[in-house]
Amino acid sequence: xxxxxxxxxxxxxxxxxxxxxxxxxxxxxxxxxxxxxxxxxxxxxxxxxxxxxxxxxxxxxxxxxxxxx
Length: 69
Prior knowledge:
Elements: E1 37-41, E2 44-48, H1 50-55, H2 57-62
Antiparallel strand pairs: 1-2
């Protein structure tokens, strides 16, 4: 199980927030709550930086169900 930023560990204490890393290019988030996109693939949350999200917007939209349109 992977801890998410701001989550608590099993002891109930606040876990140390980890910086987000882009699953595509490896960029690290410099701010505490960046405006990145994320997806859940095979049960794993993957974050994507603003640059990769913009560059691959068509591919992201192509995976949305028609109900989103």
